[in-house]
Amino acid sequence: MKSPVTVLLASALLAPLSAISATPPGSAIVFVNGINNTFDDAVANLQIVKKQLNARDKNNAYVYGNAYNATQGFFTDVKSVFKQKAKEGSSPADFWRAIDGGSLPASGMNAELQKKYIAILAKSDVPELPDHLRKYRGYLKDKRKVVLIGHSQGSLYANFEINLLVTGPDKAQGAISAVNVGSATGYQLPGSSYLTSSSDGVIGALRLVQTVLPENFSMGWHPLSDVMGHSFSKIYMNKSYGAANQILKQVSQQAYNGK
């Protein structure tokens, strides 16, 4: 019979290996860009997030990715924002009625109905939707919590995509959320958060004609950085202005809440 000392020693040696094998994969941090961004712009913005978040959360196991919202030129991009706002609805439940005039059946959204909604949205309003969903589903399949960082129009993409994955057969409740920055949305989904500066002229102008979440971060005007106060890299992630720390904190909280 093994002595108690031997058993304790074996347990101590095996514990680290068990802990390592049980460690869940790191969260996926995905940047969803706004209007008039080239692919290189979107990648550069993700790199800013990656550098600052890795400095904040040392020894993390995050993976990073882009859900690219392709630009069609400034004026076409602005038009697409208004088309998406028309589909947004006044609440998460109203989103489905805004898409096709109907509502979800009491039994919920099955795969066939989800496919129908994706086809409607992808046809003109959110053309990148199928590609984005494939990316997120890949992360979810790997048991990763997905945290979207939606900037400007990217916040509309983030809300649409989360709504589909949470309400549909993917049943991704608690597994995907967003930190929307300079948010163009009219409401926030459960488990998500947002930060919009008081000096964001783009969202301020949109608020005059559309329902948009109120500003919730006080920031001075910095015209030498960006006269409209809306740039992701020059304003929101500029460490001199204070918003970056709050954004990183929200991303970190959501990433760790998935563990």
TrEMBL record:
Residues 1-21 form the signal peptide. Keywords: Signal. The keyword Signal applies. It comes from the Bacteria. This is Alpha/beta hydrolase. It comes from Paraburkholderia denitrificans.
